[in-house]
Amino acid sequence: MANSYYKGLDTISVSDIEALGVSSGVARKLYREVSEIVAAHGPASPETWTHISKRVLNPGLPFSFHQMMYYGCYKDFGPDPPAWLPDPKSAVLTNVGHLLERRGKEFLGSSYKDPISSFSDFQEFSVSNPEVYWRTVFEEMKISFSVPPQCILRESPPGESPLSNPGGQWLPGAILNPAKNCLTFNSKRNPDHVAIRWRDEGNDHLPVNSVTLEELRSDVWFVAHALDALGLERGSAIAIDMPMNVKSVVIYLAIVLAGYAVVSIADSFAPVEISTRLRISNAKAIFTQDLIIRGDKSIPLYSRVVDAQAPMAIVIPTKGSSFSVKLRNDDISWHDFLERVKKSRGDEFRAVEQPVETFTNILFSSGTTGDPKAIPWTLATPLKAAADGWSHLDIRKGDIVCWPTNLGWMMGPWIVYASLLNGATIALYNGSPLGSGFAKFVQASISFLFL
């Protein structure tokens, strides 16, 4: 353990600091400041580190002095001392902190102190009391079921193979539609709530675009009506091979709302990789674009889908309404796809509610060591994604969340649910995240950036 090699803060001397290359005058000043903090808060308390990190440390001091302070403060803490501790006032404002301030004594009894001191106890409570914990989180996120679960977790009954439900069965008997939950108005999400903020690469001089939840819901309903008009069997797999933009998010939610299963395919894949995923999932249709625009480059996408011998493709023009390629006979342009149900524009689509064990998304491993492995999401997985966002990332109403990714990878669907189900806004940059345009987009509109 690195901290075992360091002295405690109450035993450090001026000469110890000088030995790190700090001048005598600065070393004496640092020693006085550290001594005052130790006298007020002790040599090894969270408050001690908070004051040292704010009052004593700065980038101009040797890194070895930073280490001396850190490991000296946490000398007896154990193998994994914390690098940062939240401010108590800020901790109360988090999702978990707010919940514990309201119900901490109900959960933990008289042992409850405050959100920081009692966090480990609450984590243990969440594991040992899944019925209470998960019902509480679902209530916090305003999750609705058309048929509520019989319980949160049911262990495999005698005689049933544990392989059928490893670890037990989650939310048995529940019937729901996670896309419907994303689009429902409640105290977290009203019609004017901004569901998506986005910008196209090269439009740095223009304001950031916004889509309200009411607009998103209307678009999703419209696409869901058009999907129904295709006549596919309910539960059929429908692939998406597109960049993550507003249209692909609308399509994703529409597929789920209409009771089909999304097949996630990254827009960077070669034809053979697309073909493998379509074959494994038995996809009946695929949404794609003619091209991907990155700066001044036009990257073919539809042609790769054709080379993969994909089933019927619904093809979206990257710019305007005209294509730069000729479509196969059985493929459909985005315009014609929607034109079939133009009279349904604005009509509510009644969500298809299904048992919780129904597959809603088929993702894949990377396939770098062999054929990709299918990773199916059930209807419970979106709730877990949103719950992780609620508890671990503290995604809240009003946050604007950006994670440069793709619906072909797990984080694409994850960010849709983690944002919308927590009342946050998805931030989408339609272009490369490596240039100054993306940095300007982040500065203009984002409160959460994950890389």
UniProtKB/TrEMBL annotation:
PROSITE patterns, sorted: AMP_BINDING (PS00455)
Positions of transmembrane segments: 249-270
Domain AMP-dependent synthetase/ligase: 187-434
Keywords: Membrane, Transmembrane, Transmembrane helix
Organism from which the protein derives: Turnera subulata
Gene3D superfamilies recorded: N-terminal domain of ligase-like (3.40.50.12780)
Protein name: Acyl-activating enzyme 17, peroxisomal
Protein's gene: AAE17_2
